[in-house]
Amino acid sequence: MKILVTGGLGFIGSHTVVELLEDGYEVVVIDDLSNSSLEIIDCIQKITGKDFSFYQEDVCDLNALEKIFSEHKIDAVMHFAGYKAVGESVREPIMYYENNLVSTLHLCKKMLEHDCFNFIFSSSATVYGDPEKLPITEDCKVGGTTNPYGTTKYMIERILNDIHIANPKFTVMVLRYFNPIGAHESGLIGEKPNGIPNNLMPYIVRVASGELEILSIFGNDYDTPDGTGVRDYIHVVDLAKGHLCALKKAFDSEGIFYYNLGTGTGYSVLDLVKNFEKVNGVKVPYKIVERRPGDIASCYADPSKAYRELGWKAHFGLDEMMRDSYHYILKQHEDV
Ligand code: UFG
User: Fold this and answer.
1) Least crowded by CB within 10 Å, which of 5, 207, 234, 290?
2) Is the peptide bond before 135 cis (omega within 30 degrees of 0)?
């Protein structure tokens, strides 16, 4: 079985490529390196001892896609490539809509032309907006997105549904991620955001490693147990394994399916800070500042549908997530 992985050198994509190779799949990666680097290829090879095909191309480029689909008989596509920074999407909406929508449309077009009918899509819990209930089930209302990035995910979900209706064999797995953190236990691949991180975990590790001075906690007056925001953090390796379970289901089903990939447990910002300090034996200085516009109080999954239908559930706990996130950043420093 040959799987095309878009954005396969990125944070979640690279961990999924490792799982695919270790499970015996052939892998073709397309990545334009806009938020990744060529070294990741060596790291993946080092971890798995296996090779894969790589195309440094933009998924929006129809000619590049045509070349890939002509050179390989692709059985399924996992679509990770996309812009994902919430703040940037507010400043550059056209860039976000153009890139995220056009890449998906072009990919689906080429898949249909080449009789490839299995599509695994990286969606996000952001499609639920401010959730109507907690924990969030897949049938909760979607669409209340608060920024262009989130709206691209919501729009793509709608587009995929229409493509499936028009082409019933076109099977879609919509995977709604909660908050992926952690890194591969080897420390060779992980999350490396450009510039100052927007997300909590990359920020914490940089404060702990001395690269940044102090963590700003965005508000401690939310309606949560300690007043700070609650999220469902999931280890990226668990998330990657979820994709393989979804892939297996795609191969023996027809339809469009939606799954929450989370652990089902919510932790606050302060829970993360305290747990990180305990597990890694380092201090994370912090200060409480104003709420960040657009943030919600709490967001965590009911992941039971993924367990019932895919046989998947998360195995790693917060300790492992804290350990592996820090191990990765320390290893990056060693290698410099
Ligand atoms: N936070 C801080 N300080 C920081 C960064 C974050 O206190 O420096 C807090 C936030 O206020 C929030 C929590 O930490 O309570 C998590 O924030 P992240 O930015 O790490 O994650 P979000 O839940 O805001 O965003 C994530 C993904 C988005 C996605 C969104 C909704 O990064 O892509 O979930 O699903 F849109």
Assistant:
1) 290
2) yes
Compute the distance between CA of residue 196 and CA of residue 216 in angstroms, rounded to an integer.
Answer: 13
- Cα 212 from Cα 202, distance rounded (Å): 11
pLDDT digits (tens, 9 = 90+) for 72-103: 999 999 999 999 999 999 999 999 999 999 99
Catalytic annotation on 149?
A: yes
CB half-sphere exposure, 185, CA atoms < 13 A: 7
85: left (phi over 0), alpha (psi -120 to 50) or beta: beta
* Residues shown for the chain: 336
CA dist., res. 160 & res. 105, Å (int): 9
Q: Which is catalytic among the residues 149, 203, 258, 267?
A: 149
77 close to 3: Cβ distance less than 8 angstroms: yes
Rounded to whole angstroms, the Cα distance separating 22 from 163 reads 31
DSSP one-letter string for 222-254: SSSTTSS-EE-EEEHHHHHHHHHHHHHHHHT--
Task: Assess whether the C-beta atom of 89 lies below 6 angstroms from ligand 1.
Answer: no
What is the tens place of the pLDDT at every residue in 97-127?
Answer: 999 999 999 999 999 999 999 999 999 999 9
Quote the tokens at residue 249. 């289901």
User: Which amino acid is present at 174?
Assistant: V
